[in-house]
Amino acid sequence: EVQLVESGGVVVQPGGSLRLSCAASGFTFDDYVMHWVRQVPGKGLEWVSLISWGGGNTYYVDSVKGRFTISRDNNKNSLYLQMNSLRIEDTALYYCAKGRGSSITSCPDYWGQGTPVTVSS
Amino acid sequence: QSALTQPPSASGSPGQSVTISCTGTSSDVGDYKYVSWYQQHPGKAPKLLIYEVTKRPSGVPDRFSGSKSGNTASLTVSGLQAEDEADYYCSSYAGSNNYVFGPGTKVTVL
């Protein structure tokens, strides 16, 4: 059974930093691309970032480029999102999601339960 | 990276069908076969219903079907059931290694 468990979400001040983690199990982690998707409570989904199966290629939505860094440790079956220079508009529930395959065009299929990030002074 | 367009709400009686549209542009929905649909119940994570426009993951009932014409994709839920009441989101690969989502459609089973 695919399981994705996010952690690391907290309340942080504007301009602060945070690192989210996602522990994956139930599948061969390094066979798949991985996504981060966020959702403001009561609002829609926003794709944030994608990392290739090997970790060598990373992609971001324009609003987080230069501030967020996605990474993965295939030895630990873990996905990460380093978030710097946080803004109030980054407040959301952050989901880790497994891609359907190894291609960049592989949409998210399995999702974790999310970890909440609140940026507030 | 503009979001896709969906109607805010849709409804139908049990047993009826409801179709949700998802309009993008020639740079996303119109240019790629990588349109997907997700169902989200309150307080739950999204669940993949449809990928690559028309394909269903194993375990998803065939009451859920997808299609696309030009820049608009559609999700049809046939034989509506009470448990189909949820938010539905479309998504598309948008080129340049990006994805976009629609704002979601709340489906109510009357």
Give a verbal description of the structure.
The complex is a heterodimer of chains A (121) and B (110). With 121 residues, chain A is mainly beta. Chain A is built from no helices and eleven strands. In chain A, strands 2, 4, 5, 6, 9, 10 and 11 form a seven-stranded mixed beta sheet that branches. A four-stranded antiparallel beta sheet of chain A has the order 1-3-8-7, with no helix packed on it. Chain A has strands at residues 3-7, 11-12, 18-25, 34-39, 45-51, 58-60, 68-73, 78-83, 92-99, 108-111, 115-119. The mean pLDDT of chain A is 96. Chain B has strands at 9-12, 18-23, 35-40, 47-50, 64-69, 72-77, 86-93, 99-101, 105-109. The termini of chain B are far apart. By secondary structure, chain B is an all-beta fold. In chain B, the strands form two sheets. In chain B, strands 1, 3, 4, 7, 8 and 9 form a six-stranded mixed beta sheet that branches. Helices cover 0% and strands 44% of the residues of chain B. The model of chain B has no long low-confidence stretch (mean pLDDT 95). Chain B contains no helices and nine strands. The A-B interface holds A 35, 37, 44-47, 50, 57, 59, 61-62, 95, 100, 104-105, 107-114 and B 1, 3, 32, 34, 36, 38, 45-48, 51, 57, 89, 91, 93, 97-104.
Outline of this structure?
Chain A is built from no helices and eleven strands.
Main sheet makeup of chain A: 7 strands, mixed
The helicity of chain A comes to under 10%
Distance between the termini of chain A: 40 Å
Radius of gyration of chain B: 13 Å
Largest β-sheet summary of chain B? 6 strands, mixed
Dominant shape of chain B: globular
**What would you call the structural class of chain B?**
mainly beta
N-to-C SSE string of chain B, H for helix and E for strand: EEEEEEEEE
Annotate the secondary structure layout.
The complex is a heterodimer of chains A (121) and B (110).
Chain A: E1 3-7, E2 11-12, E3 18-25, E4 34-39, E5 45-51, E6 58-60, E7 68-73, E8 78-83, E9 92-99, E10 108-111, E11 115-119
Parallel strand pairs in A: 2-11
Antiparallel strand pairs in A: 1-3, 3-8, 4-5, 4-9, 5-6, 7-8, 9-10, 9-11
Chain B: E1 9-12, E2 18-23, E3 35-40, E4 47-50, E5 64-69, E6 72-77, E7 86-93, E8 99-101, E9 105-109
Parallel strand pairs in B: 1-9
Antiparallel strand pairs in B: 2-6, 3-4, 3-7, 5-6, 7-8, 7-9
